[in-house]
Amino acid sequence: MTDKAPVIQVKGLTKVYEIGTIEVHALRGVSFDIYEGEIVAIMGPSGSGKSTLMNMIGCLDSPSGGEYYLDGELVSDLKDDDLAVVRNRKIGFVFQKYNLLPRATAQFNVELPLRYGGENGSRKEKALKALEAVGLSDRVKHKPNELSGGQQQRVAIARAIVTEPAIILADEPTGNLDSKSGEEIMNLLVSMNRIYGTTLVIVTHDAKVAHQAQRVIHLLDGLIASEELVS
Questions:
Q1: Quick check: 173 and 12 in contact, CB under 8 A?
Q2: For helices 149-161 and 179-196, angle between their N-to-C axes, nearest 10 degrees
Q3: Contact indicator for 168, 92 with CB cutoff of 8 Å
Q4: Could you say which of 9, 17, 40, 60 would form a disulfide bridge with 24 (CB–CB 3.0 to 4.6 Å)?
Q5: Element (H, E) at 77
Q6: In this predicted structure, what is the pLDDT of residue 2?
Q7: Strand 39-43 with 22-35, pairing
């Protein structure tokens, strides 16, 4: 991966939460690079710092110390409006619980990032294209309660890719799915990487999911315990 530029650079990242008089050190100095087009899995037990790290990478939270560079730009230098643009345009999010609007159609859910980004004319066209890419052309008018868990996660992936982001962050994307649906979702995410060159970062407890990545970062007690290249 050294012939490509790192899109994510984390240097000595720390995060301390204050709960009353107690300090909880969620991250204790984490450093790594993730390169353009790479698939990286982040693993670790509960409390290891995985979700905290994902929030940092997704510009959803700020570190207590250290530096985070996204496409070579120091994230702490960005203003709130700039961060909103980064989250909307550069990063696509896929969550374990789908986070779909329950009363809205699949198409409307997928259009949301475009609406937030102020795009008007081509919203429908782009949403339908994204839904087609995840195999849901026949479900565009269905609401979440009319879809299976796997189909809901496909809608969430369509929503993540509709802005054509450079990075997809997937937090336990198969956690609420049966094994067959989970395998289909991972195949879909990996295919997005292969077709579009999208950088994919996955937080997971599942070793089978992790080993579809090219590299696995193991966290323990807020530190990197090991890194593993997957053949």
A1: no
A2: 20
A3: yes
A4: 17
A5: none
A6: 55
A7: unpaired
Strand 215-220 and strand 22-35: pairing?
unpaired
Reported as a single tens digit per residue, the pLDDT across 145-195 is 999 999 999 999 999 999 999 999 999 999 889 999 999 999 999 998 998
123-127 long-range contacts, CB within 8 A, separation 24+: 126/162, 127/158, 127/162
Asked if 228 and 40 touch (Cβ cutoff 8 Å), the reply is no
CB 57 within 8 A of CB 10: yes
Distance CA 37, CA 49 (A): 24
Cβ neighbours for 176, distance < 8 A, ≥ 6 positions apart: 96, 97, 98, 149, 153
What whole-number distance in Å separates Cα of residue 36 and Cα of residue 164?
Answer: 14
Specify the pLDDT at position 1: 47
Q: Are strands 39-43 and 199-203 parallel, antiparallel or unpaired?
A: parallel
Q: Do 165 and 92 form a contact (C-beta atoms < 8 A)?
A: yes
CB–CB of 131/137 below 8 Å?
Answer: yes
Instruction: State the SS3 of 21-58.
Output: CEEEEEEEEEEEEEECCCEEEEECCCCCCHHHHHHHHC
Q: Point out the residues of the chain with pLDDT beneath 50.
A: 1
Give the burial class of 219: count Cβ atoms within 10 A of its Cβ; 0-12 exposed, 13-18 middle, 19 or more buried.
buried
The predicted pLDDT at position 231 comes to: 62
Neighbours of 6 (CB within 10 A): 19
Q: Facing residues of 140 across strands?
A: none
